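Quick one: structure tokens for this chain, please?
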Amino acid sequence: MTTTDAEKKHEVPRKARESLVFAENITMKFNKVVALDNVNFDVGYNEVVGLLGDNGAGKSTLIKVLNGFHRPTKGQIYFDGNPVHFNSPRDSRDAGIETAYQDLALVNLMTISRNFFLGRELERRIGPIKILDMARMDQIAARTMAEVGLRNIREMQETVSFLSGGERQAIAIGRATFFGAKLLILDEPTAAVSVAETEWVLRLVAEAKHSGLAVIMITHNAYEVFDVADRFVVLQQGRNYADLKREDTSAKDLIEVIAGRK
């Protein structure tokens, strides 16, 4: 992550000072295709925001701009009150943003604990040689997974290919909590899980907020996100369309907004 001299001199807007993350006038172009057009988006400290919109609305593109996967064509991102530019997803992780995509970016043939520590593996020395500290990683992963309700796994050495969609989401949420993330981004977290596991994942989101995280939930399902989100931001054709507090709307009305009928 780099902060240029121009960014340091740039006056930080009040909205950025009050928010954990504030994206101002974000435009993202892919050749002649405008995926985002002057989008403003913010998430408060310890706030759960539902990011909603139909297919092609720009939700995933916005998230990939926020976490450094894309460089915006125009606009400025502020994180924790400071102007930032993330050169890569690793930069955003180092700053405190943890993203779990719909496919969760887990390696099926690797163990639960290896996926938990992916890119942050613990090591120990045997003389001049460094090796992975598997015992310590297994211990920490098992304890953290138990804290988020994943207690029915026999061994941390099981591969994640045997886990359900809800259990995979638990790894992502547990990882974010353990590594001290400030913002957790969940891309369609209930898309491939059962009804029972959907309730569990939503409960994990509420617990993540209780532990101090801010959360962005990308979803198509207004009913699922309604009870856990504090606010809803709706995009339409790459532009801001609506920004609603939960107390000012209903799940039924939210569906009408997403469809562009309100």
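The chain has one domain: 5-258.
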